Amino acid sequence: MGGNGGSTLSGRTPRPVKSALIVALVLFLVLLVILRIGVAYSFVLTVTALVFVGVVAIFRKALGR
Question: What does the domain layout of the chain look like in residue ranges?
């Protein structure tokens, strides 16, 4: 029929674009948090975020099989 703008309607968002947006959003939030609460808390939050990313990666591998 023509037209490739219906990617979101079919439920298939391009993965690189989606993940890049998520990463940008997270980095922005982290920056705001660091400016707000300081370095000590942000270090704890960074560790928590890394653990969360690891868990998400494990879930992705489990779902991918």
Answer: 15-64
Contact in structure between 21 and 28 (CB atoms under 8 Å): no
Q: What is the pTM of this model?
A: 0.37
62 residue type, one letter: A
Q: How many CB atoms lie within 10 A of CB 34?
A: 15
What DSSP assignment string belongs to 1-65?
------TTTTT---HHHHHHHHHHHHHHHHHHHHHHH-HHHHHHHHHHHHHHHHHHHHHHHHHH-
Summarised one tens digit per residue, pLDDT across range 8-60 is 555 565 677 788 888 889 889 878 877 777 777 778 878 898 999 999 998 88
